[in-house]
Amino acid sequence: MKKISIISFTQTGKELAEQINEKTEGIIDIFDNKTKINLYLKEKFNVSNVIIFVCSVDIAIRLICNLIKAKNDDPEIIV
Q1: What is the rounded distance in angstroms from the CA atom of residue 44 to the CA atom of residue 35?
Q2: What are phi and psi of 40, to 5 degrees?
Q3: How far apart are CA 13 and CA 55, in angstroms?
Q4: How would DSSP label each residue in the chain?
Q5: pLDDT tens digit sequence for 54-79
Q6: How many C-beta neighbours within 10 Å does residue 20 have?
Q7: Contact of 4 with 52, CB cutoff 8 Å
Q8: For the whole model, what pTM was predicted?
Q9: What is the Cα–Cα distance from 71 to 64, expressed in whole angstroms?
């Protein structure tokens, strides 16, 4: 079973994340707290199979750029 983390930063993003959650099978973790995003990502990057960002591409890239190691080891990223 896939472990999926969904990250959003706005109320609209949270609502969309919940809709994604309803249509996705797997263990879902929805995060919507901007203040602790770096700690959350560092933890989830190593244990999630998929990370879904409900935000702009540039925010997602800036958040994951220091965590990326190898395409065969890193989780799938969807923005």
Answers
A1: 16
A2: -60, -50
A3: 7
A4: --EEEEEE-SHHHHHHHHHHHHH--SEEEEE--GGGHHHHHHHHHTT-SEEEEES-HHHHHHHHTTT---TTTSPEEE-
A5: 999 999 999 999 999 998 999 999 99
A6: 17
A7: yes
A8: 0.86
A9: 13
